[in-house]
Amino acid sequence: MWIVIAAVAIISIGGYFIFQSVTQDDHAESPVEEDTDQEESVPEEGEQQEGAEGEEVEERSASDHQSWQHIDYTWDTAPKFSAKDLMEPPTSNWITFGGNIYNGRYSPLDQIDTSNASDLKADWVTSLGSGYEFKYSGEATPLVYDGVMFTITGANNVSALDATTGEIIWEFRPKLAEGLDTLCCGWASRGVALGDGKVYVALLDARLVALDQKTGDVVWETQVDEWEKGYTITSAPLYYDGKVYTGIAGGEYGIRGYVAAYDANLGRQIWRTYTIPAPGEPGHETWPDDNDAWIKGGAPVWQTPAIDPELGLIYFATGNTSPDLDGSNREGDNLYADSMLALDANTGEYEWHFQQVHHDIWDLDPANPVVLYDVEIDGKMRKGIAQAGKTGWVYMLDRTNGEPLLGIEEKPVPQNENQKTSPTQPFPVGDNFVPQDITEEDIERDLPEDFEGEVGSIFTPFWDEPVTVKPSPQGGANWPPSAYNPDTELFYVLGNDNYFAYAHYAEDEANVFEEGKEWIGSVWQPVSNAPFRGTVTALDIKTNKIVWQRNWDTIAYSGILTTKGNLVFVGHNDGRIIAYDAETGEDVWEFMTDAGANAPPITYEIDGKQYISIFSAGNSLAGTQHGDKIYTFSLEGEFESLDDITDEDINTSPIQSDETEEVEEEQNAQDDVVQNGLNVYENNCLACHGAEGVGGHNGPNLENSPMLADPEALIEQIKNGSGAMPGFEDSLSEEEINSLVEYLQSLANEG
């Protein structure tokens, strides 16, 4: 009897601890908060269905998602990558968003170098079959493991491809939430994560999904948050140590930002760390104590974190305060918005922070991924972390403690009592990579003759009267990832240089908070008919000084790859992928694709052959030509130019895209012309101009535009575009343009 009792006790106690290891959350100290319930979904077998070419493909669905297997998966699946695996610079594989978990986007491959890069030709091209509509943006970094590429479109459709031929192995197409409308900056995904035989996908409607690496079937699905409240995800998740990490976007919607870690096998949340501290937590003293501004204070996480396994820390930068442009009700520095943060990767506990912009009222938040690097300074090896800001500076810190490596000085800045501005701002030692003020020469050269209003420089505040400043909310550096090359010891960053005007109007709708509605807090817009420019810059990692810089006549909006072959690869808005000499910035090679090359390039090697790949699909905020293709190049490639590539040479999905048909059916079902115009507006204009023409990210306020009083001028503008706005004559029908004009004029009448 005693033996039986002892056995039962042992089993009970053992079961309890096993249960605890599976279900218990690791609640950390400030500012870590509560866990959410796990939601799992089990895939169900579907029926056989014919593809576009009439071939039989296997369809499976789970939670209304669909996946199709086109060919057998004969490659190895990803293991539970060790810390060493994830720290290795990418060669045969590219297994994380940034190449490795340091986010450096550097490869030691050198088969392709400055001596032969001019011989690069297109090796294969694959059409992914989604993301054509203007609201979608192609920003994804593909991953490669054991000869298979995994990538995602702006519509959140995931594909597995043979990385040597581009042939599609399987496809996953999620069912996104009906009515999803809380995406401030266009529909985009910046990539997927890979590990333990699964592909991890963060969906725009704030769900995290794990797919079987061999089939694309759903393994588990977790609801991260509620998109209806403004919580969305655009960044690529990160796999490390049996966890999947993701940040939450939505700073324009009055959310409270956070980063969370999930069990990679179950989808269960392990920890969540809020980026706005609650009352009683360190940092909350930088928020008012007489209101609840902190609850909807913003600080989203736009980019994929980096990890140092030796220190056990995870690093990322936080986004804007909320409301973006109105600081009148949130006196203080507003931690931890606009900051670089380090947390314990296992528990989420706070370790250190550095705030780049105190009490931000200009939307100058750091959207660029952080980069980890080791470098010798003054005879001593230092563990560095660098992040390129919208301010136009690169911030270089000691990643062990968050202290500046090269010096950052707090300097007095102009003040505005209404905005409760911070008396000082951090000024890093070194060079700014974009202009930070507006000169008389700039005004004469760039601004229209009828331009009126005050101009300022970085950190010039505003209130009732418009003030035009540089840099703009577009940057400086925006989301396109930077890169670090340990051979050249240069840090490479893309920058934007344009004119933005700000003003605060107390009665404007942008100043009123409503859950699930965009909440900017003031009015902003680019200066009409002023130029948009970009820079590609190499800075010395030891001095933060510019070594070389290339200037573009458009914004730089793609991302950077650098290699041991002394090369820097970038994409251009006009569709080119370009290679520069990494030491001098001289042109080495370029290839024109059929759409805006607005995603970061990658490189990998299979059977001794080095490849360069880029997703060329266009971008809504960049106003570029849309497409859906992965272009892959090698020294043994066949196609010298786009003209050499026929339709028969392009890999296509056996599943016919129904995006166009769905849009047409929806529009044909609408009898109201204005409603048709609203549909056209949401798919083509909302990302830049905002809901109902207010609060967009590149376009002017439409409710008070004088052009709305002139239908012919408005039609001309829609067809041909101007400045940073693309023309839509080739993508919208006459009926769609006319209905769009009707809708825009209805906005003017309401205003």
Automatic annotation (TrEMBL):
Region described as Disordered: spans on this chain: 27-67, 413-432
Pfam family, one: Cytochrome_CBB3
Cofactors, names only: pyrroloquinoline quinone
Domain Cytochrome c: 672-748
Single GO MF descriptor: electron transfer activity
Protein name per UniProt: PQQ-binding-like beta-propeller repeat protein
Biased composition range(s): Acidic residues: 31-58
InterPro entries attached to this UniProt entry: Cyt_c-like_dom, Cyt_c-like_dom_sf, Cyt_C_IC, PQQ_b-propeller_rpt, PQQ_rpt_dom, Quinoprotein_ADH-like_sf
Source organism (scientific name): Ornithinibacillus caprae
Domain of life, per lineage: Bacteria
Protein keywords: Electron transport, Heme, Iron, Metal-binding, Oxidoreductase, Signal, Transport
Family classification: Belongs to the bacterial PQQ dehydrogenase family.
